[in-house]
Amino acid sequence: MQKLSPATLGKLAKLGIRQRADLLLHLPLRYEDETRLTPITALQPGETAQIEGIVTRCEVAYRPRRTLMCRLRDDTGELVLRFLNFYPSQQKQLAEGKRIRALGEARLGYFGLEMVHPKCRAVEAEAPLNTGLTPVYPTTAGLSQILLRKLIAGALNTLPLEDTVPDSLLQRLELPGFAEALRLLHNPPPEILPDALETRSHPAWQRIKFDELLAQQISMRRHHRERQRRIAPSLQSSGSLSVRLLAALPFGLTAAQQKVRAEISADLVRAHPMQRLLLGDVGSGKTIVATLAALQAIESGYQVALMAPTEILAEQHFLKLRDWLTPLGVAPVWLSGSLKKKDKLVATQRIASGETMLAIGTHALFQAQVEFNRLGLVIVDEQHKFGVHQRLSLRNKGKVENSISKVKQGGNEPATQAVQVVRQETGEDANAVSPMKLDYQEPHQLMMSATPIPRTLAMSYYADLDVSVIDELPPGRTPVVTKLVSDTRREEVFERVRIACLDGRQAYWVCPLIEESEALQLQTALETFETISAAFPELRIGLVHGRLANEEKATVMAAFKAGELQLLVATTVIEVGVDVPNASLMIIDHAERMGLAQLHQLRGRVGRGAAESTCVLLYQSPLSELARARLKVIYENTDGFEIARQDLQLRGPGELLGARQSGVAMLRFADIEADEKLLDHARQISDTLLNEAPEIAQAHLRRWMAHTHDYWQV
Ligand code: ADP
Ligand code: MG
């Protein structure tokens, strides 16, 4: 690489090639077949092929643009080569009487069969054909295929291509060695079928995709392990508060809730930070599970922070947990950005002094001025709504504020206990524990999400987390009936809403999402509210939207919850978490504009009580093909995981995870859906490699890391 000009190096860097080894993994997009010649009469329109013939005529025509037209004849027939942009040298190369080999796609043009801008070269009669397919590499302006091929061939011949996957494993998975796979992909032998390469189903491609997935898994599993070296308080409690809470609840936990509760509880006892993602479909009952985890921390003398992405949801949690926990002597404190200065000060003081054990609020909880006395557990609801950076800042807060000196001031010495546990678990000599370790005590983290992530995505993107899944809904729910209704029948829908409300039911009217403009969305919500209020003077109607002052929002929500309002006109602010069991009818206006996960979340706001619920998806016709396919998925499925899986197929992982997650490494070659089997193997093997051959795992990672953003430690 040293001999290359800075300009060329810059272009290579654009392709992700920063060191010679990166050339190896710069794999062909496709291949050209210059191993054989096709007789001109045998050409099919649409076929890409190489032909050879003599130029019988070459002229510049104006039809209407300046075009170089060249007739080429072989023993079987004739065809036209056409060039729109050309150099005099090309014209010369294609002079009458020359023998030319041309590679291109045959098309049916005005003058019969033609090739537009074929790749041409002059040859001698009987010139030898290529013996293998010619690779075509992804490239960038000003970087020729010829140079790329030369550089790559050089790298292939001189760099070590040692294998990072054990032989026995390759045999079991029926995958070729690394060197063999690379050589084949860069220089396919003549007998290979281009199709197997182009669809990337060939074992050589499988090997590369496997390696890529393996690198991803190793990286994430390493972060996961690295966590086992950090220290968190061991939250051991007698569980008496939990027993009392459970006894007071009108329901018992489902088997799934019990299972995940046990998983979380076991993590909290350990002296290493938990980072667990609790996945459970809308309405599966995550809040109570989180509350029980909070009680475990509180009983052990540690504070808990519960954070939700919106004021509405955070406030709802606050009210619910206050109801549940006040009888147990635990009084949560509320903290949000909208609190009056004085109230905020009181709240932060109570948090800093350790007087309050449970703080509930929005991300205001994690702003710099909020100091925790002994933060032991952080719970983040609807974590997918938060960016990765918020996740990070939250972990750091625990680190800084919870240093050992602070803990010691508290009198108790849980950090010392933690260190002892670490010593036992790691078999470390007590004296060998570095003092640095004592300075770090991190809170445990429980992240919750109702956006069901398909298994493959969870494995790929959350492999650094432990995942618990609540896979059943509490009993006694009647499934929501979903109806797809065209906008042309709006009047009918109005009438149904009116009848339902007069019948004692409560309903949501969700206003159209207008992604481009919040102002426009607000305006639409106001207009909808006015239209509906005018149409139904006899109903008590409320309005919530993102711009409402928080107190007003809370008042409206409380009135709806208490049954004082019959109809709630709302923007998608009600999407997450809102829990009003008596609401049994939901209209979603312009449903075609919303994402599937969002529709599923919204629909989950009804069907929470015993009454039969209905969700009407009002759509504007005509629907695009994709919109139709998506609404069909929502219409036909109630299981959030199935919806997410189909969503993934329709949209691809990037969009499903949302822009916020786009910092997460995207795979270059593998496709987590199509290559699910390889992903499974990679997952298993990454652990084995890290255990048994960490230096090989490291080498493997290094080989792939140049292209992969190491963003996973967040
Ligand atoms: P989500 O998982 O969507 O956050 P919630 O925690 O809000 O769900 O629970 C939805 C509703 O189900 C709440 O009203 C909650 O009190 C109730 N619930 C939770 N667990 C059970 C259960 N095991 N049996 C009956 N109802 C339950
Ligand atoms: Mg919830």
Top keywords for this entry?
about 725 residues; alpha/beta; OB fold (Dihydrolipoamide Acetyltransferase, E2P); Rossmann fold; seven-stranded parallel β-sheet; six-stranded parallel β-sheet; 27 helices; disordered C terminus; binds adenosine-5'-diphosphate; binds magnesium ion
What is the strand and helix layout of this fold?
Layout: H1 6-14, H2 20-24, E1 30-32, E2 48-62, E3 66-73, E4 78-83, H3 88-93, E5 99-109, E6 112-116, E7 119-122, E8 134-136, H4 145-158, H5 167-173, H6 178-186, H7 194-198, H8 203-227, H9 240-248, H10 255-269, E9 275-280, H11 286-299, E10 303-307, H12 311-325, E11 333-335, H13 341-353, E12 358-361, E13 375-380, H14 388-401, H15 404-409, H16 414-426, H17 435-439, E14 444-449, H18 455-461, E15 466-470, E16 481-486, H19 490-502, E17 506-510, H20 518-535, E18 541-544, H21 550-561, E19 567-570, E20 583-588, H22 596-603, E21 614-619, H23 625-636, H24 640-651, H25 653-657, H26 676-692, H27 694-705
Parallel strand pairs: 4-6, 9-14, 9-15, 10-12, 10-13, 11-12, 13-14, 16-21, 17-19, 17-20, 18-19, 20-21
Antiparallel strand pairs: 1-8, 2-3, 2-5, 3-4, 5-6, 5-7
Helix pairs in contact: 6-8, 8-26, 8-27, 9-11, 10-11, 23-24, 26-27
The protein binds adenosine-5'-diphosphate and magnesium ion.
